Each structure stands twice: as structure tokens, then as C-alpha cells.
């Protein structure tokens, strides 16, 4: 695949594209600072990458100031979903994200000195809990969707066997079955892709809250990986599958 300058500019011309790029560099800096520490680098060498990480972490929040409104709108849309389990998990996901982005915004105002909050540490901790809750809801939704996809795939498999046996009535459905099979595979890929991203992202708040013991190297690689995955999704939105 040949990447053109126009494609790169289209990607970077979107807020989400720039945010994912900043996020990727931020988490790479986190990983690399950890790597330098393990290699016995000097404090100045480590501080260079730590400062880059911290600066990008603050800068990225500017791109996300409108995110609470987006999450609120998605939560409202989730209420009308016909499937009760999907409705519950998607509503939980969006409410979690709404709370996380609000806490993040309060923390950002504190970090730039615009609004000093004596409970800033608690607010940030609450934000990470809400982020983790949102991701767990998303993972639960993904597992449920996979179950539904597998059930539909089983029905299709029975149809394929009937077609193979030459039943005239079923043979007429052959083309439809092939189309449905391709659609199911696309759905399964999308759900697995999102679940992988969610599981890796969940390591970040879980480690920050000390629910699991992970060093900055693992957290940095997890964040870098999900940044690339999110960036690829955004790339396809603006440039298509090429």
C-alpha cells in the first residue's frame, strides 16, 4: 500500500486523527522512558521523554473538550436500542465515558492553573474508575454480540448443508446465504477488533488504579497499540480501505 501526502493530510486534518497521533507518541514516550530507566540512562535522558509524555497528555485534552456532549448524545441513542442487554451495556459505556471526560476536563483545568481543585487527585481517580467501567461495559457488549453472531452462523451452516444436499427450496437461497456469510464475517472482525482494543485499553486505568501490577513499559505498549488501532480506524474513515 502506497501512502500519499494527501492521505496523510486528510487524516491529520481531522481532530480525531491528530488526537490519535498525539496519543501514540505519548504512550511511546511512556514506554521509552521506562526502557531508558531499565537500561540505566541518566536522569536527563529519561526526563526528556517523561516531559514529552506529560506535555502531550495535557495537550490531548484540548481535543477532547467536546467529548462529554458526544458521549451524552450516544447514551441518549442507546436508550432506544431494541436488545435489552445491548441497551444496558451501551448505556453504561456512554455514561462511563461521559463521567470520565468530565473528570478529565476538571483535571485539565487544574493542571493549567485555571481552576485549582483541592480534590483533584480524587477527581482523577474517579475518572479512571469510570473509564474502566465504560471499557468493561463495552467488552461485555462485544462478548454478547459475538454470541449472537455465532448463533446466526450456526443457522447459516445448516442452510449451507441443506443447499449442498440439493434441496430445491433451499438451493434458491444459496446466493443470499453467501452474502449473509460475508456480512457475518465482517461483523465478527469488527467486534473482535473493538474488543481487542478495549481489553488493551482497560490495562491502562486498571494499572493506574493499582488493580493490577503492570510497569510503565507494558502500559506504554498497550496505549501505543490501541492508538495505532484507533488511528487505523480513523484512517479508513477518511481515506477508505486503501
UniProtKB/TrEMBL annotation:
Coiled coil spans: none
UniProt keyword Signal, yes or no: no
Any Pfam family the entry gives: PEX11
Keywords: Membrane, Peroxisome, Peroxisome biogenesis
Localization per record: Peroxisome membrane
Keyword Membrane: yes
GO CC list: peroxisomal membrane
Gene Ontology annotations of biological process type: peroxisome fission
The name this protein goes by in its record: Peroxisomal biogenesis factor 11
